[in-house]
Structure formats: C-alpha cells, structure tokens
Amino acid sequence: MNVDFRFGRMSKLLRKPVTDPEVIALANISDDVVNKSAHSGFINFKNIGLTIMLKEAPWVINYYKPGDETVLYVDGIHFYSEGYEEHAKYSEEMPHGLNFGDTKDDVLKKMGEPYSTGGGNYVKLLNKNSPMWIKYMIGDDVLHIQINNDERVDLVSLSVITPAIK
Question: What is the pTM of this model?
C-alpha cells in the first residue's frame, strides 16, 4: 500500500477525530493501532519516522457535541530524526527546507525570527539539560523545532494550540 506521508498531507490531519475515515485508515496500517492512555493517545509509524498524537476534544477543538468530550482528535504530529526514540528518519520534505541536523543558525536563516524559544536549562529531576526549542506559527498551528545537546535539529512537531477552556 502506497501511503502519502508528506508534511502537507499530515498537517491536514490536525483537528480530525479518530473516527474520520482518513485517520482510521492510517490507524489500521500503523505499527500498533491507537494507543490510548488517560486523555491522550498516539498512532505510531516508527519505520516512517512519525507519530500522530491524539488528545480528547476539549484539548484540541473549541466546539464539540455534548457527550463527545472523550473522543480523541489529532492534536499534533512528531517528525523524528534517525534513531530518535527508535524511529527511522522522517524523509519527506519539511517546511522552508528545514532538515534534521540543521543548527539553530540554519533554522533561523531558513525560517526567520521565531515567536518563542526556550529550553537548554539544567533539569535537576532529570539530571541533565532539557533540549533547546524554537517555535514558529504556521497558520493556526505551532511548529516546534527541538535542538539536541549537539546543537542540531533532532525532532520537529506540528501541533494545534490548546483552545481556551471555558
């Protein structure tokens, strides 16, 4: 089966419920169908280098039918570098020519000024530095770029902004 895992196609899954035919079709060919834990879940494609992240309706969309609060929706997609959490490298093209292994300076040249940056601080509980990250807005969604301790891009995520809880 030939499946389109291009970044643009994957980004169109955001905010779709797990009951959507496109999400169901992907879940059926994933490594391990849908894994759910508490209020979230995921659909894993280790050999493709991506994971589709799921959360319950209130964390993803503003309006849903009464009783649909626990329906899972696509909240984000992680795109992995080779070996990150035992994944293959995501090999499709990413926005603005972004590549795994790019430095922070490479990212800034390709993407421009981010709307937010952080990380890189020592976390006592973990006994190590947290990864640095850079965030950009792509339409209504957030592109989160993680920089590892070697100062290279090793994880890219696209996610929705959590709606305001009423």
Answer: 0.91
Q: Tokens for 99?
A: 């590549």
Q: How does DSSP assign 90-128, residue by residue?
A: P-S--GGG--TT--HHHHHHHH-S-SEEE---EETTTTE
Cα 6 versus chain centre, distance: 13
What SS3 state is found at 41? strand
For residue 10, which amino acid is it? Answer: M
- Comparing CA positions, the residue from 100, 104, 94 lying closest to residue 133 is 104
Q: How many residues does the chain have?
A: 166
Q: 74, 16 in Cβ contact below 8 A?
A: yes
Query: In whole angstroms, what is the distance from residue 126 CA to residue 143 CA?
Result: 25
Give the count of beta carbons closer than 10 Å to the beta carbon of residue 83.
11
Find residue 76's DSSP bridge partners. 53, 159
First vs last Cα of the chain: how many Å apart? 43
In this predicted model, what pLDDT tens digit does every residue of 81-138 receive, in sequence order? 999 999 999 999 999 999 999 999 999 999 999 999 999 888 888 788 889 999 999 9
